[in-house]
Structures are given as structure tokens and as C-alpha cells.
Amino acid sequence: MSVKPTKAMVLAAGLGARMRPLTDKMPKPLVPVAGRPLLDHVLDKLADAGVSEAVVNVHYLPDQIIEHTASRTRPRVIISDERGQVLGTGGGVVKALPLLGPEPFFHVNADTLWIDGVRPNLARLAETFDPSRMDILLLMAPTTSSIGYGGRGDYSMLPDGALRKRKEHQVVPFVYAGAAIMSPSVFADAPSGEFSLTRMFDGANEQERLFGLRLDGVWMHVGTPDAVGAAEEAFLESVA
Predict the structure, then answer these.
(1) E strand residue ranges, the chain
(2) φ, ψ of residue 239 in degrees (nearest 5)
(3) pLDDT value at position 15?
(4) Which residues does 181 contact at the CB level (< 8 Å), separation at least 6?
């Protein structure tokens, strides 16, 4: 049983501190890579996946993002304004839930970047998501083939896609690529105010309802100014 999300949550409220000086006067989602802002790369993929409305949250230099997305129609952008508060990755979703509706939705970080393989990864997520077994389905990138990532990974993955969180001092083969499908029901008991989305991941994991899908293509971790050049090089190679 698959789903066809028509709504998405795009996290664009971060401070982008590690991207300074590029983010001194520009929010990280608007930093250009391969000729387009990071945010537009994400919104384009959502449009191609059939999303008609994307809720974009804003906090740091919000007016730039609001102005940039104002004329967008594919998908239509709805702003969730967090300029007066810091809600974190989890609290931002809770605030936006009334705009997202009761059905499973795409959840994408505004600064995630990947090159699709044979088939678009968001379409593959929608085909794989099974609400009878899953509350959250994460797009998982292999650490060994990702660009700009040097960490220990986030999860190991069982043959059926079930995820197991990395233990301290452990090295695991997959890192969360910043794109997912989520059921709004996972936020039923969510706290108010600021909290991290990892709390929801951990809760779904404890219920054995957190699953992953291996990314087909190349994922790029654009976390610092130096990583922008590596990402652009990968894009050029992909269209050569």
C-alpha cells in the first residue's frame, strides 16, 4: 500500500551558522548551488513528485525567503512564520500541522541536496510508504558514497527497511538524507515549544514503525562553504 502525498513540510528556519560568511546576510536555503538556491532544488523535486502545497517555515532573515517564494505556483508555498520564536525541527512541524492536514506528508530539509538515480527518490518514498506498518519513512544515504559527509552514520537498516539507531561509539552505514514521509499521528503526544525531530524518530523506532529507503543516486552534505564547490562539481558531472 503506497501513498501520494500532495503536501510537504520544508524546514527553512535554521540559522545556518556553519555556512558563515555565506549566511551573514542570506538564509542558508537561498545559498546558490549549481545556479539555483538550495530551496529551489528541493521545491522543484517536490513539484515533480506531485506536491501541490509546501509549508515552508521561516525564522532567520525570513523576509528574503517569503519574497523569494511568493510567486511560486508549483508547488504553492505557504509560510509558517516562526520569527518570534525558536521551535526547533520538531516544534516547527507541530506548529504547521493544521496546514498539513490529516494525510501523510513529505518532510524535507531546505538544505538537503541529492542527484536522483534512475527514478526520483521522492516517488520511490511514496511507493514504499505503507501506513499500516510505518509512521515515518526516511530517505537514507550510504555514508561511503555521499559527498561532504564524514560522520559515523545515523542508522543501520534491516533487509525489510526497519531502522536501528546507531549506538555510541558505533559506526553504521547510513545517514539520514533530509527527506521523509511522515504520518501526522506521530505528533499526537508531541511536546509544545522547542524540540528536536529526533524525538519523533526515536518514538517511532521504539514502536518498530521507523523505516528507511536507500537513496538511489548521490547525496551531498552541504554544511559548510567549502562543501558548496564539491556539490557543484558533482552536479556538473551528473549532466555531462
Answers:
(1) 7-11, 32-33, 36-37, 53-58, 76-81, 105-109, 113-116, 136-142, 155-157, 163-165, 174-182, 210-214, 217-220
(2) -105, 0
(3) 84
(4) 3, 5, 104, 105, 106, 107, 125, 126, 129, 136, 137
Please check whether residue 183 is in contact with residue 204, taking contact to mean a CB–CB distance below 8 angstroms: no
Query: Which residues, in sequence order, are CB contacts of 2 under 8 Å at separation 6+?
Result: 126, 127, 128, 129, 130
14 DSSP β-pair partners: none
- CB neighbours of residue 71 within 10 Å: 7
Q: How far apart are CA 211 and CA 139, in angstroms?
A: 9
Over residues 63-78, the mean pLDDT reads: 95
The helix (H) or strand (E) run that includes residue 62 is helix 62-69
Kindly report the CATH class assigned to 7-239: alpha beta
Task: Report helix angle 88-100 to 198-206, nearest 10.
Answer: 80
pTM for this model (two decimals): 0.94
Domain boundaries, the chain: 7-239
DSSP 191: P
- pLDDT tens readout for residues 117-153: 999 999 999 999 999 999 999 999 999 888 888 889 9
Say which amino acid occupies 193.
G
